[in-house]
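Structure first, sequence second, as always.
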């Protein structure tokens, strides 16, 4: 028999990260832990964040400090930058050991980033096999140039791969929980209206829907108000 196979230290570390991400109770907790682990395991990474571009708008989903939020905001304003490009799937990975050398590619963003004290960056597209998933980009930063090496890129890519799976799973779980809660709230509100007005289920739903449209309030929010206050949505 051969000797038992032992994973290397990086493999053990990433496996531990993957287990930790899947154990988080909420989507935001998952995102926050991705950034925490990025700073912990990727050589040269001093701060990090996750940026998403939805309907043309940049969102900072999580960030380790205000500088990351500022970088995201600037890229959104200028419509350029490595994180912005990665989130739009223009490239899966950017490794920029010295950001100053990328002025030609992002002539407006780079000077602003240097003013923030950003000297090195790496951006990784967060994606799964589901092409419909729009997860954004994991972005890693250093305050000194030439801190990001090929090993940093390899570790970052491994982390981003596991992070995308955990991110997508947590988001679907959150959407499922919200859908179940919404159905429960609507069902309970319909029951209250049926009892209050002695009407059928269909009539109660139409009453709730009309009140939602008249008040320009989402159906689930109106239903939750009915269940919490017992007040009928009339007038």
């Amino acid at each position: 028999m051969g000797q038992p196979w032992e994973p290397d230290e990086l493999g053990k570390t990433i496996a531990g990260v993957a287990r930790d991400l899947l154990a988080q109770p909420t989507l935001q907790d998952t995102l926050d832990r991705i950034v925490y682990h990025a700073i912990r395991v990727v050589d040269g990474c001093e701060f990090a964040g996750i940026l998403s571009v939805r309907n043309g708008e940049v969102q900072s989903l999580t960030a380790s400090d205000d500088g990351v939020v500022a970088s995201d905001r600037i890229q959104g304003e200028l419509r350029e930058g490595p994180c912005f490009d990665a989130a739009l799937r223009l490239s899966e990975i950017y490794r920029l050991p010295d950001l100053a050398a990328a002025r030609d590619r992002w002539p407006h963003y780079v000077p602003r980033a240097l003013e923030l004290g950003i000297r090195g960056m790496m951006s990784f597209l967060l994606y799964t096999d589901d092409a419909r998933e729009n997860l954004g980009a994991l972005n890693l930063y250093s305050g000194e140039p030439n801190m990001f090496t090929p090993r940093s890129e390899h570790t970052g890519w491994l982390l981003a791969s596991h992070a995308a799976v955990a991110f997508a799973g947590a988001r679907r779980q959150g959407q499922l929980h919200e859908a179940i809660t919404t159905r429960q709230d609507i069902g309970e509100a319909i029951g209250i209206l049926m009892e209050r007005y002695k009407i059928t289920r269909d009539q109660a739903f139409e009453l709730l829907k009309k009140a939602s449209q008249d008040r320009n309030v989402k159906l689930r929010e109106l239903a939750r108000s009915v269940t919490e206050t017992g007040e009928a949505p009339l007038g």
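Margin note: The mean pLDDT is 88.
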